[in-house]
Amino acid sequence: MLCARCQHHAAVPGGTLCAGCAAAPAAPAGPPFAGAPATWLRSPVGLGRAAAAMLALVAAVDLFAVWAGLVLYDVSGDLVDGEVGEDVIRRADHADLLTAVAGVAQVVALIASCVVFLCWFHRVRANAEVFDPSRHSMKRGWAIGAWFVPVVNLWFPRRITLEIWDASSPTDRPSSHGLVNAWWTLWIIAQVADRVVSRTYSRAETAEELRNAAAQLLFVDVAMIAAAVLAVLVVLRLTRMQHEKALRGPAPAAA
């Protein structure tokens, strides 16, 4: 009979290990889930709450941007109608300032939330590999890299999220992907629209062009808010799924 550990040398008579493996120190115990890679489950709850809070902050900043957009749209409408005077000029300057402040705040909030979100995302990806290593088609590092590689970042993060989602299901059946798909669809729409509208706004010269750009900015900001709210729900739901699955413990070994 071959050695049960190295599967190369013959086991010593009456035993299950060869002489070399029997003399070697035992390997440390692996993770608590059968077939798991060299990693351990780590609670996603703290990072999940932090990521959800940061995404809620992004939604709040986007809401401020909506208000700034409404102010800009209102005053640009007055300019289109031919209104002139110091009051209109003052309101136009105020609208420009609000729009600029909102834009800076959105960038800062987005960067800060991305840092926390990616820490959480990598954590749940590692946990999902412990739960079910067979569910994943890409290495763990793609949980970070997939967001920054051009072109593939349009679908790789969603694919990784769905694999984490399925591996983290606390039941025997994968949970519905509807929430993830809705979040990702809105996120892509908002990102693409933001790039297009930003160029439109920067090139606006006439009052009519400015009003059209303001209307488009409002659409982008509303889409951003919706995407951020759905992202919060995804984070909370996936965090809860992993927490519940970890509390259930490893699945019974097959007979």
From TrEMBL:
Keyword set for this entry?
Membrane, Signal, Transmembrane, Transmembrane helix
Lineage, opening ranks: Bacteria, Bacillati, Actinomycetota, Actinomycetes, Kitasatosporales
- Going by the entry's taxonomy, the superkingdom of the source organism is recorded as Bacteria
Which Pfam families does the entry link to?
A: DUF4328
Asked whether the UniProt record includes Membrane among its keywords, one would answer yes
Span-the-membrane segments of this chain are: 50-73, 97-121, 141-156, 217-238
Q: Where is the signal peptide?
A: 1-26
> Under what name is this protein listed?
DUF4328 domain-containing protein
Keyword Signal annotated: yes
Residues of the DUF4328 domain: 91-240
Xref: InterPro entries? DUF4328 (IPR025565)
